[in-house]
Design a protein that fits this description.
about 260 residues, mainly alpha, Helicase, Ruva Protein, domain 3, Recoverin, domain 1, 3 domains, two-stranded antiparallel sheet, flat
Length: about 260
């Protein structure tokens, strides 16, 4: 049972409404279901906004679709009208106030199911914005603010991290180039809300992989490295060698123990 005062609950309802545009009734319902934790309620709203928001009916309207089609045309490649390519992506990000070099770009790409770096696909892009009725740049900017909040929750951060592998790898390849994986780890791991993996340990991980030849990173190793950073102790003493970790992580633990 929540011990929050009525005033505190009302404040959280207002905060939720301001961020999402949901009704106060929907905000209260989601907050109650998540023990009045704003980030958890935002996560629930963000991952399935349609049942929780009155925007759902608007999102299915012909006018919203028309507005999104018009907005899409502003950025799409004239030679490939079902795609926003690199130039259009850069302009779109500038108009949204999104820095392509920051994590929020990955979150935006995840939300719109972008197929690969620097590109958006029309059907997925339109469907994502339709679902929440965000048919203008101003409304999409509001959703970017929601995404920033969502990145503070371990669940959404993990989804964005896992998405980054397929988003960043070369089309047709099964593995992620080491140089790209290195850049993404340096970007993502320090911002993980569920990890306290020290910077020097991340640097040691990258040095270890470099010494091993800087080979491409498999999806399994990519995904499980996040779990590893969330569970390993600073001295690497509590590592479970019988758990189903990739051999590269087993080898890294041995490498790290010899150096700390």
């Amino acid at each position: 049972m929540s011990t929050l005062s009525k005033t505190a609950k009302e404040g959280r309802i207002r905060e939720f409404v301001e961020i999402t545009g949901a009704s106060a009734t929907d905000a209260q319902r989601l907050l109650k279901a998540t023990s009045w934790r704003v980030n958890a309620a935002l996560d629930a709203f963000f991952n399935d906004p349609r049942p929780a928001s009155s925007k759902a009916s608007a999102a299915n309207s012909a006018q919203v679709t028309k507005n999104l089609e018009t907005l899409w045309t502003k950025y799409c490649d004239p030679s490939q009208p079902n795609e926003i390519s690199m130039d259009g992506t850069m302009q779109y990000c500038a108009d949204l106030g999104v820095d392509p070099s920051e994590v929020i770009m990955l979150a935006l790409a995840w939300f719109t199911k972008a197929p690969t770096m620097g590109r958006f696909s029309k059907r997925e892009w339109v469907e994502a914005w339709q679902a929440i009725g965000a048919d203008s740049l101003e409304r999409q900017k509001e959703q970017v603010d929601v995404l920033r909040k969502q990145l503070e929750t371990p669940e959404t951060f993990r989804k964005v991290y896992i998405f980054a592998f397929d988003y960043a790898k070369t089309e047709g390849q099964k593995s992620l180039q080491f140089e790209i994986a290195q850049e993404l780890w340096n970007l993502l791991i320090p911002l993980d809300p569920a990890s306290s993996f020290p910077h020097e340990h991340l640097a040691m991980w990258i040095s270890f992989l470099t010494e091993k030849g800087g080979r491409a990173v498999s999806k399994d190793s990519w995904n499980l490295f996040l779990d590893f950073t969330r569970t390993i102790d600073p001295a690497f003493k509590q590592y479970d060698e019988d758990a189903a970790w990739p051999s590269v992580i087993d080898d890294f633990v041995e490498y790290a123990r010899a150096r700390i």
